[in-house]
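Session log. Operator J.P. requested a structure for one protein chain; no other inputs attached. Running the standard single-chain path with token output.
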Amino acid sequence: MKPDNVLIFGGTGFLGRKLVSALLQTKRYRLILPYRGATIPAEWLLEVQKNANLEPVAFSGDFLPWILGQDPTKSGNLLLAISLIGKREGEPPQIFESNLGYVGSLITLFGSLKAKNPQIITVYFGSIAEYKKFGELSLYACLKREARKRLEESGVCDLIVTHSILDDNKEEIAADLKPVLPDIEKSSYLLDRVVLSTLSSSFLCRAFICFIEHYLSHVNVKSGSELVILEQEQSLRQFLTKIFDRKIHPEPKSHDMEIRYLDYLTEVVNEKLASNNTLRIRMLTFIELARMNDPVERERKNHYLHFGRVSDLMKMGNIRNVLFSRSDLICLSMENRYLIYPTQSPFLTGDANGHGE
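Structure written below.
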């Protein structure tokens, strides 16, 4: 059987590479991967050499006139058009262009593809940052929020995928946090009061592919539906322990000393992360959450927990809105939103030593 074509923009990033690899492993898809430049990106070279179902295509300038001049369906049906484009860091013009500047072209592209074939599924990967309502917003979060709004209003995007922090992107996260790690690992309030929703790229890709395959055979997803993929919650202490592969044990301090230390951390973060605005604002948000004594208020203002904890969702697994389940994951249907989470969470907030709340 001839594989279906999948058009992917943004396949060279961390998640893009993982999704490309996961789709190829199914042996059911032929991937068309546009890229700028004179040479094939190094991330794809090995896959290109061993897999005939991967077709890198070079282009220059705006991708819209380029792709509209192509015929992505010439080698089989175009099943999916996916955008994973989006830079978190860099110069402001680069961040703007990769998160919002290109969205008008993406909307035109999705609309053109659907005019040729209404069965094509158009997908945009968003960010949990779009749900942030507490504290300062980074340029990245503002742009992603506006991009989502425009895509929803366009009516040509079938599925928006929302996920939180990928905890297996260790090298990049460790490099980003290295300047402030010696300071933040001394605050038990910061490490134990801040809870993150995290997931692995392997679970995200598996959940996404399962949803798409179920969608193709069973579900008529309305335009603008959202797929939320969750896996687990971790305290910041657990998260950093995993990233840096070592235990982190701050010295215990009184409440007043902890609050004064958080004041000091605010100055440190502003100084040492001045060139990484997205991470700087994220850490300042963590510090403000750590100041809150009321755990209910912390959870309400923590946008990483916007969709609930996996442990709470597990209690909903026997109700009518289960769309489908596999041995390792389950999908709930809630009007225009679909939530996927594991049937067994790797671990819940708090660890064997009682850390976390």
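Operator note: The longest strand covers residues 29-36.
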